[in-house]
UniProtKB/TrEMBL annotation:
GO biological process: biotin biosynthetic process; gamma-aminobutyric acid metabolic process
Organism, as annotated: Oceanibaculum indicum P24
UniProt xrefs under Pfam families: Aminotran_3 (PF00202)
Name used for this protein in its record: Putative aminotransferase
Protein transport recorded as keyword: no
InterPro entries cross-referenced by the UniProt entry: Aminotrans_3, Aminotrans_3_PPA_site, PyrdxlP-dep_Trfase, PyrdxlP-dep_Trfase_major, PyrdxlP-dep_Trfase_small
Keywords assigned by UniProt, alphabetized: Aminotransferase, Pyridoxal phosphate, Transferase
Cofactor entry: pyridoxal 5'-phosphate
Gene Ontology molecular function, alphabetical: adenosylmethionine-8-amino-7-oxononanoate transaminase activity; pyridoxal phosphate binding
Family, similarity comment: Belongs to the class-III pyridoxal-phosphate-dependent aminotransferase family.
Length: 454
């Protein structure tokens, strides 16, 4: 690396999250310096289609001036105030009111944080508050799912069902359990229909609850589509059957809408796409198009009343952050939600989402592709060694990582999750950009196939 270049300085000074550090030391970073629409540019001016919208999040693309203006306006008016001890400010009030008005089910209150992880930590505490208020403090166990992703703080990493988030950290913490991953392609049995698979998943959940004792199980948390676990779309009838089990044993239902919220799956919420009726809902990312960090948790009246009861007992609602509902982040989020409405982003996703799904379905016959999955503007293609037996490649080959690298060379930023390649472009992607994205994908796939043959 050129001494004193951005890459050299990055390697010298910057410890990167979610990065293979040894590889990073020799290969260095891709340094992004600007963006326009669905494109980003590196230091040399090379252009990339950002097919992951950053981290599943930059819904309005990389140069939305209205969000910049909203931030500047709020910065000038009131750059900071907090929401502790009966204080408030207009952006957080407006945003709470707005979020309630678009919620997938009737919600009572909204509490703010700065990230998806913090939102889900908040969810954990709310669940515990709830059962304490019901005088059932033993109902503390929370069930999430293998391959579910809910963040990296100690409690949310415990909810996350991926080994990398547990190893070395003594996680999960007590009272967190993991149910089956509902990936039909990988875990469906021979001859089992998608609906039968969903029934089995729900039966297994019921068995888990009975084994633990229903009096000890307080909540179940799920993403509508598992994102970081590999874009795993629930099998037909899954959430209907899961919710019936939860109801039977009086278990709260929490939806993690951090990726799926704000039109990603074709509806405002993934909960609407999959018939989920959560008691608690967390969201982040596209809430502000990620221009500033902000997340939110919505709770129904039952959960809110439990918070009131507990805060009366101890004198305070014992949770919150310095930046809960930060006015500048809240103002940017409000403007984001306004833009979704004014530009009818839902209708746009209704138009371009099917193009993505049709486009990736076209690769299903490629010899390398085992499964194509997705809905709305989120999808993935899984590469396999043997299409017929669905046998995966030896992980040591790093086929997914190879793909991501070749794609980057071809001006396409995707996310490799094992050997699955995920797509989650900004919601504003046009028909033409979609075509461009898919042709860069096709070129990269052929190059990977050729490399694997060689
Ligand atoms: N929940 C889901 C579904 C996510 O995809 C993520 C992040 O990707 C999180 C929670 C954690 O969010 P953050 O990285 O903002 O802490």
């Amino acid at each position: 690396f050129v001494p004193n270049s951005a890459s050299a300085r990055d390697i010298a000074h910057h410890l990167h999250p979610y990065t293979n550090l040894k590889v990073h030391e020799t290969e260095g970073p891709l340094v992004i310096t600007g963006g326009k629409g669905v494109h980003v540019f590196d230091e040399d001016g090379k252009d990339y289609i950002e097919a992951m919208a950053g981290l599943w999040s930059v819904s309005l693309g990389f140069n939305e001036q209205r969000l910049v203006d909203a931030a500047i306006k709020q910065m000038k008016e009131l750059p900071y105030y907090h929401t502790f001890t009966h204080k408030s400010h207009l952006p957080s009030i407006d945003l709470a009111e707005k979020l309630k008005s678009v919620a997938p089910v009737e919600m009572s209150k909204v509490i703010f944080q700065n990230s998806g992880s913090e939102a889900n930590d908040t969810v954990v505490k709310l669940i515990w508050y709830f059962w304490n208020a019901q005088n059932k403090p033993e109902k503390k166990k929370i069930i999430s799912r293998i391959k579910g992703y809910h963040g990296v703080t100690v409690a949310s990493a415990s909810l996350t069902g991926l080994p990398n988030n547990h190893r070395d950290f003594d996680l999960p913490i007590a009272n967190i359990l993991h149910a089956d991953c509902p990936h039909y392609y990988r875990f469906g049995l021979e001859g089992e229909s998608e609906e039968e698979f969903a029934t089995r998943m729900a039966d297994n959940l019921e068995k888990l609850i009975l084994k633990e004792g229903p009096e000890t199980v307080g909540a179940f948390i799920a993403e509508p589509i598992m994102g970081a676990g590999g874009v795993i779309v629930p099998p037909k009838t899954y959430f209907e059957k899961i919710q019936a089990v939860l109801k039977k044993y009086d278990v709260l239902f929490c939806a993690d809408e951090v990726i799926c919220g704000f039109w990603r799956t074709g509806n405002y919420w993934g909960s609407q796409t999959f018939g989920m009726k959560p008691d608690i809902l967390s969201c982040a990312k596209a809430l502000s198009s990620s221009y500033l960090p902000i997340s939110a948790v919505m709770v129904n009246e039952r959960v809110y009343q439990a918070c009131v009861t507990e805060s009366e007992k101890i004198g305070v609602f014992g949770h919150g952050y310095t930046y809960s509902g930060h006015p500048v982040a809240a103002a940017v989020a409000l403007e984001t939600l306004k833009i979704y409405e004014e530009r009818d982003i839902g209708a746009h996703v209704g138009k371009v989402g099917p193009l993505l799904q049709k486009g990736i379905a076209g690769f299903a016959s490629h010899p390398l592709i085992g499964e194509v999955r997705g809905t709305g503007l989120i999808g993935a293609m899984e590469m396999v060694q043997d299409k017929k037996t669905r046998a995966a490649f030896d992980p040591k080959l790093g086929v997914g990582a190879k793909f991501a690298k070749i794609a980057q060379k071809n001006g396409l930023i995707v996310r490799a999750i094992g050997d699955s390649v995920a797509f989650c472009p900004p919601l504003i992607i046009t028909e033409q950009e979609m075509g461009d994205m898919l042709s860069r994908y096709a070129k990269s796939l052929d190059e990977v196939a050729a490399q694997l043959k060689a």
